[in-house]
Amino acid sequence: MALLRTEGWQLGLGLLIATGLGLLLNILPWALCAFLLGYLLRLARQLQRLQIWLQQHNEQDPPEATGLWGEIFDQLYHRQKRQQRAQGRLQTVINRVQDSSEALRDGVITLDSEGNLEWWNSAAEKMLGLRAAEDRGQPITHLLRDPRFIEYFEMRRYQEPLILPSPILDGIQLEFQITLYGEDNRLIMLRDVTRLKRLEQMRQDFVANVSHELRTPLTVLSGYLETFSDYSQDLPPRWQRGLELMRQQSVRMEHLVNDLLTLSRLETSDFEQEQDPIDVHRLLEAIRHDAQALSGDKQHMISIEADSNVKLYGSEKELRSAFSNLVFNAIKYTPAGTEIRLRWRHERSGAQLAVIDGGEGIEPSHLPRLTERFYRVDKGRSASTGGTGLGLAIVKHVLLRHQGRLDIHSELGVGSEFICHFPPARLALDPAAAHPPHPSKDFRPQHRLKSS
């Protein structure tokens, strides 16, 4: 401000002197014009010096000047030096990030908000065959044309990774994990999971082979035990109990083998979808009939709330297996007389099937692991009910094959809710279901579910 005032005083003093000389020599207009022209020429000269200096990219010191222009040159010079230092620090960070990314064995790709390639490391270049001169700025879906990748990329649901074969390397399996960041930018992580897939395949083959090998001897044992049971009254009481226990355990082993074979088939077979959409309401009615027979003397009250206008594309056999597992679990692990609700409805995010019970509930620490194979909350209780620990694993695999997911909500002493979510692409809607209701939370731990 002081320099600006000084510059103003100098301009005023110059005008005063020019006015005095003009009056003295009787050429006032010409004197003022000459003064203003000289002042403008001085300004133009200083602007020209500033332009030349800026065009030199600050490779030289700023021009020498006094007064206000000297202060402007100095401030610009110091500000640009600070910017250069900040840019240098940022460039150092960027170089370190790029160098560390280059050292990774996993591939790293960055995409802009339009899905175009911005940058990638050497590992991604080797895995996908990218070429910097030709592919930079190209849409990723033009280079990776696999329909499964395009669907995964456009659906924008990246909770689970996608595994696909490498487009250029035979026998190599790649895992794609996409992360959204910034203003709709994407980061793609690539990982070679060939060895893991081979180990997984070996495990699946082992389980399938062992299950098939066990089925025949178990069938023979169960058959003879069933025959012996018909004559158990002729045996001593101690032998009768042993025979009954062997029969129960053989039945349990048969259930275990059947569940293992089901899991093996889900993991290894191709998905076969029904041509016509499945009437979920009718399917739930059939499951309720079986569940009431399983409940027996427990007399569970099983109710259905189903939107018959919403049908589902998929495998009826697999969906029946998954839904039955959820309902039969509710029968096994809830007290007698408990109400069990089956709810099928359409929502804006798709559709959901919920199995709601008023049982003992599950501790929060167990919820993340419930879908693991052979995981049991209470091993003693599961053994007494004949559970194999594979039911929820089967449910999870069936939902994955139908692009769905399983959510579990529970609270001790209140009840549990198992929700199967299905995307809109899996639904067949009648006109009456075109406008779904807003989603709401039916599971409220603070209110106990009604029981008979």
TrEMBL record:
<dbReference type="InterPro" id="IPR013767">
    <property type="entry name" value="PAS_fold"/>
</dbReference>
<keyword id="KW-0597">Phosphoprotein</keyword>
<keyword id="KW-0592">Phosphate transport</keyword>
<dbReference type="Pfam" id="PF02518">
    <property type="entry name" value="HATPase_c"/>
</dbReference>
<dbReference type="InterPro" id="IPR050351">
    <property type="entry name" value="BphY/WalK/GraS-like"/>
</dbReference>
<keyword id="KW-0808">Transferase</keyword>
<keyword id="KW-0472">Membrane</keyword>
<keyword id="KW-0547">Nucleotide-binding</keyword>
<dbReference type="Pfam" id="PF00989">
    <property type="entry name" value="PAS"/>
</dbReference>
<keyword id="KW-0902">Two-component regulatory system</keyword>
<protein>
    <recommendedName>
        <fullName>Phosphate regulon sensor protein PhoR</fullName>
        <ecNumber>2.7.13.3</ecNumber>
    </recommendedName>
</protein>
<dbReference type="GO" id="GO:0005886">
    <property type="term" value="C:plasma membrane"/>
</dbReference>
<dbReference type="GO" id="GO:0016036">
    <property type="term" value="P:cellular response to phosphate starvation"/>
</dbReference>
<feature type="transmembrane region" description="Helical">
    <location>
        <begin position="12"/>
        <end position="41"/>
    </location>
</feature>
<dbReference type="InterPro" id="IPR021766">
    <property type="entry name" value="PhoR_N"/>
</dbReference>
<dbReference type="InterPro" id="IPR035965">
    <property type="entry name" value="PAS-like_dom_sf"/>
</dbReference>
<dbReference type="InterPro" id="IPR000014">
    <property type="entry name" value="PAS"/>
</dbReference>
<feature type="region of interest" description="Disordered">
    <location>
        <begin position="430"/>
        <end position="452"/>
    </location>
</feature>
<dbReference type="Pfam" id="PF11808">
    <property type="entry name" value="PhoR"/>
</dbReference>
<comment type="function">
    <text>Member of the two-component regulatory system PhoR/PhoB involved in the phosphate regulon genes expression. PhoR may function as a membrane-associated protein kinase that phosphorylates PhoB in response to environmental signals.</text>
</comment>
<keyword id="KW-1133">Transmembrane helix</keyword>
<dbReference type="InterPro" id="IPR004358">
    <property type="entry name" value="Sig_transdc_His_kin-like_C"/>
</dbReference>
<feature type="domain" description="Histidine kinase">
    <location>
        <begin position="209"/>
        <end position="426"/>
    </location>
</feature>
<dbReference type="InterPro" id="IPR036890">
    <property type="entry name" value="HATPase_C_sf"/>
</dbReference>
<dbReference type="GO" id="GO:0005524">
    <property type="term" value="F:ATP binding"/>
</dbReference>
<keyword id="KW-0812">Transmembrane</keyword>
<dbReference type="GO" id="GO:0000155">
    <property type="term" value="F:phosphorelay sensor kinase activity"/>
</dbReference>
<dbReference type="InterPro" id="IPR005467">
    <property type="entry name" value="His_kinase_dom"/>
</dbReference>
<keyword id="KW-0067">ATP-binding</keyword>
<dbReference type="InterPro" id="IPR003661">
    <property type="entry name" value="HisK_dim/P_dom"/>
</dbReference>
<keyword id="KW-1003">Cell membrane</keyword>
<dbReference type="GO" id="GO:0006355">
    <property type="term" value="P:regulation of DNA-templated transcription"/>
</dbReference>
<dbReference type="Pfam" id="PF00512">
    <property type="entry name" value="HisKA"/>
</dbReference>
<dbReference type="GO" id="GO:0004721">
    <property type="term" value="F:phosphoprotein phosphatase activity"/>
</dbReference>
<feature type="domain" description="PAS">
    <location>
        <begin position="102"/>
        <end position="147"/>
    </location>
</feature>
<dbReference type="GO" id="GO:0006817">
    <property type="term" value="P:phosphate ion transport"/>
</dbReference>
<dbReference type="InterPro" id="IPR003594">
    <property type="entry name" value="HATPase_dom"/>
</dbReference>
<keyword id="KW-0813">Transport</keyword>
<dbReference type="InterPro" id="IPR036097">
    <property type="entry name" value="HisK_dim/P_sf"/>
</dbReference>
<keyword id="KW-0418">Kinase</keyword>
<dbReference type="InterPro" id="IPR014310">
    <property type="entry name" value="Sig_transdc_His_kinase_PhoR"/>
</dbReference>
